[in-house]
Q: What sequence folds into this?
């Protein structure tokens, strides 16, 4: 049975949102305990902002990946671009348990720097295939840039 494209797009979005849901396993218990005790930088946003922002970013990531996949998964450049996308998604998923689960802000900072680089790499790969797919990742890059600042600040302040 062949699924229609809107259903496939929704499956890509759900897959990316699942990465975010995985992170909440580690985030939720730490927000009111460990995280609340940390010294945070002046630009630290309120905790409630993170959920809506990440939900939106994961949806954009899913749409972006779908747009690339739609160009033909049998094509070598599409497979490579989606492999880089998967790499950044895995780094995204690793960061949360290291930061919120293990409370290791230093190692988490190294991971988020690698994540930031892999997002740029993904944008470059996607841009060659579908510019809209690349542009949809710009808010993600900007947010991870800000999150990198927060991670570094929390690491050095604590």
A:
């Amino acid at each position: 049975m062949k699924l229609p494209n809107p259903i496939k797009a929704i499956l890509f979005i759900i897959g990316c949102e699942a990465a975010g849901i995985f992170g909440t396993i580690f985030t939720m218990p730490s927000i009111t305990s460990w995280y609340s005790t940390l010294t945070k930088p002046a630009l630290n946003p309120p905790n409630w902002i993170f959920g809506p922002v990440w939900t939106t970013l994961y949806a954009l990531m899913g749409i972006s990946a779908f747009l690339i996949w739609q160009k033909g998964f049998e094509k070598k450049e599409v497979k490579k671009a989606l492999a880089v996308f998967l790499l950044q998604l895995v780094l995204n998923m690793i960061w949360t348990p290291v930061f919120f689960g293990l409370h290791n802000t230093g190692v988490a900072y190294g991971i988020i720097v690698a994540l930031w680089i892999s997002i740029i790499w993904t944008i470059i790969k996607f841009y060659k295939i579908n510019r809209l797919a690349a542009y949809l990742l710009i808010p993600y890059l900007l947010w991870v840039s800000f999150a990198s600042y927060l991670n570094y600040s929390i690491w050095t302040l604590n």
